[in-house]
Specification:
This protein is α+β, with helices and mostly antiparallel strands. The chain contains four helices and five strands; from the N terminus they run ααβαββββα. It has a five-stranded antiparallel β-sheet, with helices on one face. The longest helix has 17 residues.
Length: 181
């Protein structure tokens, strides 16, 4: 069952990396050069996005540290169980917040996104609908999908970062094909 869960997550990441989004969303305060919803182009002039330090200045450990620093400073604690499959660890970071422990989860989400932006992550398009927000942030060949889902009593906050380079795109496709049932 765990393999199926990661296969589904990898499929979603491949779609996000490939730019197969809904095309909807919000451009609030963004220029017309912002990537389409679901697209994940690296920020201009910040690296090649070839994965694991092979061109960009960030690797998975550095990205995880930046997300962790921003999120914990905003009042979140990391929810256990965010393990990435071993073959994707250099290409993907998953950080889920224990939203119940934050005093104001939506404010903590906004503060985390703001802290990442102040740390050099370039904000892309945002998608907002019925209590859910998904924002894209790009830096040095990495793309973070920051998602907040707070409709009703269930709150889910997650930051999923992927290396947008060809090495990792190939790794995601291979993992998806391997886990297809």
């Amino acid at each position: 069952m765990r393999k199926a869960k990661w296969a589904a997550a990898a499929a979603g990441v491949v779609l996000l990396v490939a730019g197969c989004g809904s095309g909807g969303g919000s451009d609030k305060g963004k220029g017309t050069d912002a990537p389409a919803a679901g697209a994940s182009a690296p920020a201009a002039g910040t690296g090649t996005g070839t994965g694991s330090g092979k061109g960009g200045s960030l690797d998975a450990a550095a990205v995880k540290k930046e997300i962790d620093t921003a999120a914990t400073a905003a009042g979140y604690t990391e929810k256990p169980g965010n393990d990435v499959p071993p073959n994707l660890k250099s290409c993907m970071v998953s950080w889920a917040a224990d939203a119940k422990k934050a005093a104001d989860s939506k404010k903590s989400y906004d503060d985390t996104v703001s802290a990442l932006a102040k740390g050099g992550w370039k904000e892309g398009r945002a998608f907002e609908q019925q209590g859910s927000v998904i924002k894209t942030l790009d830096k040095s060949g990495w793309s973070v999908k920051a998602s907040y889902h707070g409709a009703g009593p269930l709150q889910i906050v997650q930051f999923v970062a992927t290396d947008t380079g060809p090495v990792c795109a190939k790794a995601f496709q291979e993992d998806l094909a391997k886990n297809k049932q």
